[in-house]
Amino acid sequence: MSERVHILIAGGGIVGTALAWALARRGVSGIRVIDLDLAGMYASSELNAGGARATWWQTVNIESCLATLDFFRAHAQEFGFQERGYLWLYDDAGLLAQADEKRVLQNRLGLGVERLAPGEVQERFPIVDRGTETLVGATFSPRDGLVNPNAVRAFYRREAQQRGVVFSDRDYLAGVRTELVAGAGAGSTKRRVAAVELIEVERSDPTDAEGVIREILCTHRVPMARCVRERRIDCDVFVNCLGAWSPLLAAKIGVHDVTEPVRRQLSLLDVHGEDVAPGVNLETLGMVVAPSNVFFHPEGAHLLAGYSIPEEPPGYDFDYDGEDFFIEEVWPRLAACASSFERCGHVRGWAGLYAVTPDCSGIAGAVPGFSNLFEAHSFTGRGVMQSCGVATSLAARIDSGAWQGVDLDPMSRTRFQDPRRWIAESLHI
């Protein structure tokens, strides 16, 4: 069975869905989005901490995040966007000096990042009442905040569908067919993606209670008992938006990808009102990043906290280490920063994937050597924060041949051929 579409997007996460929306807004028709897990049970954007910031070190990342924050701000009520800021605490003078250096660029681009002395931190953020004797300072970025990623992706999908975009669920991309075409120069040739081969997976329990989707995402094979049918989709343009799974798709096309999937864990905590220090109002708190790299922010009636284990090996791992992770990694670091969290209790937690590149920045643009292959993935935890800025610009590049808004050329995969072209980021949590 064969179908034909104009633009085929692999990956219905927040970036792929945003790109479909941005293309449809430009009047492009014949768009199809395929995904194995369209509900997003294992999507990185659905499993993250909900932070939204433009406080980065590289211009392209700042600009694409700023464009997205403006979009969130315009739909603040629908997206649950709360402009409460990010507070970064430092106990290392060298790291604070780096932050001061980058603050010049950040503020030139309009972030308004403030530099706080240790005394100002305690005055403005009384939650931070431990470890203050070792603090050398902090930065506070007031334009950053918190957002509901589920609501954002739902908006992109709803608006895209209203403009004719078709979303296909339970589709496993088994193979890609390419062909040679004449290039622009005399005697030159390029390849083009002609079609993709799909395996439609049985639609059993929509909550994936049996873990079928999870098994496929982690092992990259479809159990024959779950195969409903195989089909092919021919396309004019193909876009890889598979996030942590982008290297698997790239390999099927014959392209080497540098992305690695790395697990990140989050814990939801219960903080009793009587245990919160006097003068502390959790309801107005944004994201706080402690010197130990534990981070936290209020999440409804609870507290959301996370910590990235430095030696975490790459792999497709969705197992949450449970209360042991909270007790060993999160709680000691929280209690060392704030007495209000000394008696917090573990409620539950989950694990998701970061798609990590060598310089911790995303990959976007045309894939060299192909006439119709594009990509937008591996934003190393910034997919939500960059979704609108990246999608709007890449949609223009696909449709008209030129970037619009943010110049994404620095995100080309060709930069990895020369480390001097890397767009290295360090403020990851």
Please characterize this protein's 3D structure.
It is a single chain. The chain has 429 residues and is of the alpha/beta class. It has helices at residues 14-25, 59-74, 76-79, 93-108, 118-124, 149-162, 212-219, 246-253, 322-335, 383-400; strands at residues 2-10, 31-34, 51-52, 86-90, 114-116, 137-141, 145-146, 166-168, 171-182, 189-201, 227-240, 260-270, 287-289, 295-299, 302-306, 345-356, 363-366, 373-377. The longest helix has 18 residues, at 383-400. It is globular. The termini are far apart. 46% of the residues are buried.
Give the tags.
eight-stranded mixed sheet, 10 helices, 429 residues
Outline the fold blueprint.
Layout: E1 2-10, H1 14-25, E2 31-34, E3 51-52, H2 59-74, H3 76-79, E4 86-90, H4 93-108, E5 114-116, H5 118-124, E6 137-141, E7 145-146, H6 149-162, E8 166-168, E9 171-182, E10 189-201, H7 212-219, E11 227-240, H8 246-253, E12 260-270, E13 287-289, E14 295-299, E15 302-306, H9 322-335, E16 345-356, E17 363-366, E18 373-377, H10 383-400
Parallel strand pairs: 1-2, 1-11, 2-8, 4-13, 11-18
Antiparallel strand pairs: 3-7, 4-6, 5-6, 9-10, 10-11, 12-15, 12-16, 13-14, 14-15, 17-18
Helix pairs in contact: 1-6, 1-10, 2-10
